[in-house]
Amino acid sequence: MSQNRSTAVMQRRIEPHDSLDDFPTPPWATRALVQHVLIGGGFRADTLAAMSSREPCCNRGYMAKPMAETFKSVEATDIFPYGYGETADYLSMARQSLVDFTIFNPPFRLAEQFIQRGLETSRVGVAVFARASFYEGIQRYRRLFQPRRPTFYAPFSERVILVKGRLLDPDRQYPKIDAKTGEVKRDPKTGEIILARPSTATSYAWFVWLKDTHIIGRTESVLIPPCRRLLTRPGDYPEAE
């Protein structure tokens, strides 16, 4: 299957049933969870530093690595061997040890199952990176949000750019790719490659369930302020090196 490498992800993120749903999460988005949702929501940095964590959709480690900056330990796995962490099917594992936090960007079609497993195997909480519209859907409301309301709903005020199969730096220009042909776009007059910065029309948010408060039935909204540049570190974008 050819990958859509367009720098502008304007379509909805819907993957075929057998797709790996390979959309790497920029590291700054995970740091935003820690700084503006967890610590901003009452956790202390030294408390988090004593906790264990799990990332069951670790991909190439773009979320697990910033998690390691915060937590005492990070157990990183993925169903596909991307070259980071262990290869394991999170939903098929019969038994799993408990961790304090489970944090992940799940395959969209399996998100509810991942959240349920995370709640079963986490002592403190579960944090899920998903489209802001993940809240929508009557059946999802009945199965997930009505019985287990999130403690925090934290949308980003600044767009988080996800591109299939790649992690692109929003401050860098890349060759534009024709979504239909997969070929690099060129200026019809000069023949030069057309460059553009990555962009997106999709909004993302963190959905956080804390085990001791999720049954209260009230969700606190936390708007994550613009913080990409502040939370980006050297080496976060390998293709920019």
SSE order and pairing:
Blueprint: E1 8-9, H1 27-38, H2 45-48, E2 52-55, H3 64-68, E3 73-78, E4 86-87, E5 99-104, H4 111-120, E6 122-131, H5 138-145, E7 152-155, E8 174-175, E9 195-196, E10 199-200, E11 204-210, E12 220-221, H6 228-231
Parallel strand pairs: 1-10, 2-3, 2-5, 3-4, 5-6, 7-12
Antiparallel strand pairs: 6-11, 7-11, 8-9
Account of the 3D structure:
The chain has a domain at 23-156 and 204-225: Rossmann fold (3-Layer(aba) Sandwich). The chain has an eight-stranded mixed β-sheet with strand order 4-3-2-5-6-11-7-12. It has a two-stranded parallel sheet with strand order 1-10. A two-stranded antiparallel ribbon has the order 8-9. 34% of the residues are buried. Residues 1-18 have low confidence and may be disordered. The chain is globular and about 60 Å long. The protein has six helices and twelve strands. The protein is 18% helix and 20% strand. With 241 residues, it is of the alpha/beta class.
Low-confidence stretches: 1-18
Rg, please? 18 Å
Q: Structural class given helices, strands, pairing?
A: alpha/beta
Strand order of the largest sheet: 4-3-2-5-6-11-7-12
What does the average pLDDT come to? Answer: 88
Second-tier CATH architecture of one domain: 3-Layer(aba) Sandwich
Features:
241 residues, single chain, disordered N terminus, two-stranded parallel ribbon, Rossmann fold
Give a brief description.
The chain is α/β, with parallel strands linked by helices and 241 residues long.
